[in-house]
Amino acid sequence: MSKVFEMNHPLIQHKLSLIRDKNTGSKEFRELVKEVSMLLAFEVTRDLSLEDVEIETPICKMTTKMLSGRKLGIIPILRAGLGMVDGFLNLLPAAKVGHIGLYRDPETLKPVEYYCKLPTDINERDLIVVDPMLATGGSASAAIEFLKDRGATSIKLVCLIGCPEGIAAVQDAHPDVNIYIAKIDEKLNDHAYIVPGLGDAGDRLFGTK
Ligand code: URA
């Protein structure tokens, strides 16, 4: 069974409260999502491996640490996942970014991929799938499935807000994928919105309705 990490750093919780507030407009919403994403990126990368390297400071030679492990890939699920990309890239500028777009088929209710552009070497990268809201878990599970079908072997899922239903769905489908969430909310409502949540993350990011 995968692990679920709730990121209860005070800065994350403070900024998330501002993000949730319905009076927060799109500009501030985007900035806050970027800032929280950067803080999440910091937490999610705690387990990156390091190696010893020799460098020379202005004073003397020394042995110090630098990242040594596999390269990273950030995979936003369109469209709301786009809001998290810049925050991750601020901390991980060498990461490549792949995009996955999904819609729900109105008849089968299954997620259908309409766009997918990924780094060619995803099998050699640690992938971080980003989507602000883990609601039913349908899109996240499908996106992870598409990545695995294309050879991905190391995947984490990072969300701003999740709920027990979505977490259970992803854990069921992908017991190898750890989930990182700023805050786990109470439940889904009948319209598949997270309660209390923040409303529609895509609409709030991009000012649509
Ligand atoms: N997607 C959103 O943007 N918000 C929700 O509450 C659920 C899914």
Your description of this structure?
- It is an enzyme of class 2 (transferase).
- InterPro entries: PRTase-like, PRTase_dom, Upp_B, UPRT, UPRTase/APRTase.
- Its EC number is 2.4.2.9.
- It comes from Fusibacter bizertensis.
- GO terms for molecular function: uracil phosphoribosyltransferase activity.
- By secondary structure, this protein is α/β, with parallel strands linked by helices.
- It has 6 helices and 13 strands.
- The chain has helices at 10-20, 26-44, 82-91, 138-149, 164-173, 201-206; strands at residues 4-6, 50-56, 61-67, 71-78, 96-97, 99-104, 111-117, 125-130, 133-134, 154-162, 178-184, 187-188, 194-195.
- The strands form 3 sheets. Strands 1, 4, 5, 6, 7, 8, 9, 10 and 11 form a 9-stranded mixed beta sheet that branches. The chain has a two-stranded antiparallel sheet with strand order 2-3.
- Strand 12 (187-188) and strand 13 form a beta hairpin.
- Helix 1 (10-20) packs antiparallel against helix 2 and helix 2 packs across helix 3.
- The protein is globular.
- 37% of the residues are buried.
- The site of uracil has 10 residues, from helix 6.
- Uracil is lined by residues 80, 133, 135, 192-194, 197, 200-202.
